[in-house]
From TrEMBL:
GO molecular function: ATP binding; ATP hydrolysis activity
CDD domains recorded: ABC_Carb_Monos_I, ABC_Carb_Monos_II
Organism: Kibdelosporangium aridum
Start and end residues of each ABC transporter domain: 16-249, 263-506
Pfam families: ABC_tran
Keyword ATP-binding attached: yes
Source domain of life: Bacteria
Annotated keywords: ATP-binding, Nucleotide-binding, Repeat, Sugar transport, Transport
Alphabetical list of InterPro entries matching this protein: AAA+_ATPase, ABC_carbohydrate_import_ATPase, ABC_transporter-like_ATP-bd, ABC_transporter-like_CS, P-loop_NTPase
The protein's name in its UniProt record: Simple sugar transport system ATP-binding protein
Length: 507
């Protein structure tokens, strides 16, 4: 196993290199003398626990932030000056989990943004060039439509096409699979392989370690702002990889439903969905008992997200009833859902989950403010206690409860969302992709929390396609085209689940 970043195969050209990079944010050292060398034409994985420094390295490698010290080179040449955005764009592009596309502009405008030159824009030419650019990517969209209408998969492809069209041959994919369903992930990987064959180099960030084995040749591990190792993927077993990430031997153990006592019919129904129809789902009947964990799986178009969002009041059902402990909820009211004991981890932590400018403590306490003090006068000490408890219980990497959530790494923000959902001791928990962006070790502890709250009698719905997230469930309901198409007990195999999600099994 190689242990130094300076040992990239001799003679191989490097597409990108960062050496001796240090980056501090106030007291936090986000990168401590780290390096990475990415060989021309390879897919190089960068992995590490939440807060390890991956995104910070991405911002240094893309020229969005200057390092305090160290150097970046592309194809052996020093990186452009920070002000030379064009220069950086010609060398490197990053497809983030969050879009850099302007939703209100058309797809064509997004593709050619900053590049119309000084002459007047010919719209017909722009449209034609855009269509030609996207054609090899199989993105079959009307380029005059607003980019907001693109699916996540299409948006990513548009961003890759945009990068390649300005000449970048080194592309960073920062957790690209976090919001894609199984078939879309496979399509992305096929696309990566084809682009690699044509000379494109990738740096790939993911918390799904099996993806690294599938699509990368080399892996670099960061831990606590430091470079730990760089090695060929083929030489590094999964256990060794996890040990390098966590700094301790012992592997992982995700809690399974089988370890909890069986619920049976004795437990009373906590959440009852009766004949519920709405945006993308129809006539849903589901009962979730106290202490029961239900998994909702299905492709991106199955209606599972819309159903879950209707349960916690973000969407209004067109007909049917949602009851918590026999009490009917007011349709389309998040507040009423909260008052009646529903806690949620929403799909998009940035839009519905967190107030980024507020601290960890303020975000974690948001669902219980009225219990902490009269009319908005929560004593700071109590607030800090809620924050400190969240940090401890969810292993949040931070300088303290006062730190604004905007300063946290993505995975640590997700843990704050989970802490907030649970702060109110909900009777029913609705969790959408609860482990998205969360590292393998933290995933284990978050799923441990799900297991614990179920044992205390809460009813839980987990919406996810992640087999690990589903293992904690007593039943897994697979949705297909807005209906529950298949139900599994605790004894399913990953193959069964994938087949049902893709709609290739009988009911
Ligand atoms: N703007 C900022 N201000 C203060 N601290 C920051 C800022 N951005 C990042 N940090 C801190 O730097 C450290 C590294 O964060 P970074 O986002 O690079 O981690 P990461 O490895 O990408 O994590 P994740 O897997 O959760 O995305 C963290 O401790 C984070 O809190």
């Amino acid at each position: 196993m190689m242990s130094s970043v300076t040992q990239a195969a001799a003679g191989d050209q490097l597409a990108a290199a960062a050496r001796n990079i240090t980056k501090r944010y106030g007291r936090t050292v986000a990168l401590n003398e780290v390096g990475i060398e990415i060989r021309d034409g390879e897919s190089h994985a960068l992995v590490g626990r939440n807060g390890a420094g991956k995104s910070t390295l991405v911002s240094v490698l893309t020229g969005l932030q200057a390092a305090d010290s160290g150097e970046v080179t592309f194809y052996g040449k020093p990186s452009p000056a920070l002000s030379d955005r064009e220069g950086w764009r010609r060398n490197v592009a990053c497809v983030y989990q969050r879009s850099t596309i302007m939703p209100a502009l058309s797809v064509a405008e997004n593709l050619f943004i900053n590049r119309q030159g000084k002459t007047l824009i010919s719209w017909s030419k722009l449209r034609k060039q855009s269509a030609e650019l996207l054609e090899p990517f199989g993105v079959d969209v009307d380029v005059t439509k607003p980019a907001a209408e693109l699916t996540v998969e299409q948006r990513q492809l548009v961003e890759i096409a945009r990068a390649l069209s300005v000449g970048a041959k080194f592309i960073i994919l920062d957790e690209p699979t976090a919001q894609l369903d199984g078939p879309a992930i496979e399509r992305l990987f096929e696309r990566m392989r084809a682009l690699q064959d044509s000379g494109i180099t990738f740096m790939f960030i993911s918390h799904h370690l099996e993806e690294i084995y599938e699509v990368c040749q080399t892996v670099t591990v960061f831990r606590d702002a430091k470079h730990i190792l760089t090695a060929p993927v083929a030489d590094l077993g999964r256990t060794e990889l996890v040990d390098a990430m966590t700094g301790e031997p012992g592997g992982l153990s995700v809690p399974g439903a089988a370890d909890r006592p069986s619920i049976g019919d004795k437990s009373t129904v906590a959440l009852n969905l009766r004949d519920l129809s709405g945006d993308s789902f129809d006539s849903i009947n589901i009962e979730v008992r106290k202490g029961e964990v239900i998994g909702l799986a299905g492709s991106a178009s199955s209606g599972k997200h819309q159903l879950a969002e209707t349960v916690y009041g973000l969407r209004k059902a067109s007909s049917g009833v949602i009851e918590v402990d026999g009490r009917k909820l007011k349709p389309g009211s998040v507040l009423d859902a909260l008052k009646n004991g529903i806690g949620c981890v929403p799909r998009d932590r940035h839009h519905q989950g967190l107030v980024l400018g507020l601290s960890i403590a303020e975000n974690a306490a948001m669902t219980v403010m009225d219990k902490l003090g009269p009319a908005g006068t929560v004593p700071p000490k109590q607030l800090a206690q809620v924050g400190s408890k969240a940090i401890e219980s969810y292993d949040i990497v931070t300088s303290g409860p006062d730190q604004p959530v905007s300063d946290l790494s993505g995975g640590n923000q997700q843990k704050v969302v989970m802490a907030r959902a649970l702060a109110s001791d909900p009777k029913v928990l609705v969790l959408i992709n609860p482990t998205a962006g969360v590292d393998v070790k933290s995933k284990e502890s978050l799923l441990g929390v799900v297991d614990r709250v179920a044992r205390t009698g809460a009813a839980v719905i987990v919406v996810s396609d992640e087999p690990d997230d589903m293992r904690v469930c007593d039943r897994v309901l697979v949705m297909f085209h807005g209906e529950v198409a298949h139900e599994f007990g605790r004894d399913w195999t990953e193959q069964d689940l994938v087949a049902a999600i893709e709609g290739v099994t009988e009911k």
